[in-house]
Amino acid sequence: MLGRKAVNRPTIGLALGGGGLRGIVHIGILEVLSKEGIQIDMISGSSMGGLIAGLYGAGLEPSDLDKLALEVKDGKRFDLSLGFIEIIKFLIKSISAKLGPSPKEMPMGLISGNKIKKDLLKETEGKYFNEARIPIAITATNIMSGELVIFIANEFKPDLQHLDDRIFITDQQIATAIRATISIPGLFIPLEVEGHLLVDGGLKNNVPADILDELGVDIKVAIDLGFAIQDDKLIKNPVDLILQSVDIMGQEVSNLILEDYADLIIEPKVEKASLTDIEKIPYLLKTGRQIGYQLVPKIERLIKGGK
């Protein structure tokens, strides 16, 4: 089913999980796999994993992603963090504007996402899913119906059509899917696409290895960051509280999916990191590389038919 072109070896797919800023480790993993000659044939992702999957699928090399992450640290790109001061400013602005008691007058999130969408369009060169260098699948959640939404190239939709409990969106730009999957409820204003109001994909499927399986990938490798058990010093503000809540909600479903569909599950031990801890990005990149080097021999054994 994996289509595009035949290969004379087992096909390899990566499912990249969400996990807030800790998802930066995916970049280090991709960097090592590329360096060691492990070719990825398909990539799926949710939330931060969907961001990395989308950028990689659009053609950015791991070295480009590494550079991009460091530019985020320096405040030059993708301002995904939202400190406490920004929340206070928002509340003051809301009160000053006298929005009134009607929920219809209140915004559905603190971040519009327009600037991020613009940056994503630039980084992905406006590419659509059918223009990706390898097949990619990015998840989101329909906040109205609770259904899982999968962004994918139209050519793969027939292979997934029997999954009638899911919504498939095709013929969209990769940037649109990324903007949808990173839409943490309460922080980002949900993104409306084809009549669906979309938020973070991690709510329904945080590590989408099952999609790789449905599309006929031979070796499904799942990178599951799980949720980090926090202490009261790490829950610093409402942003951290929301992120931790989202991670916890998606974890049980992810565990069930991975048990059934993943051939190799990697659960990295990553230092706790709030979304605002961007100074930890170099550490997260380094940790990802370390994980990548541990992962390479395991994938090679699976390619050779071992366990």
TrEMBL record:
Matches recorded under Pfam families: Patatin
Annotated keywords: Hydrolase, Lipid degradation, Lipid metabolism
Chain ranges of the PNPLA domain: 14-213
Gene Ontology biological-process entries: lipid catabolic process
Taxonomic superkingdom: Bacteria
One function term, GO molecular function aspect: hydrolase activity
Positions occupied by motif DGA/G: 200-202
InterPro entries: Acyl_Trfase/lysoPLipase, NTE, PNPLA_dom
Sequence motif GXSXG, location on chain: 45-49
Active site: S47, D200
UniProt motif (GXGXXG) ranges: 18-23
Designated name of the protein: NTE family protein
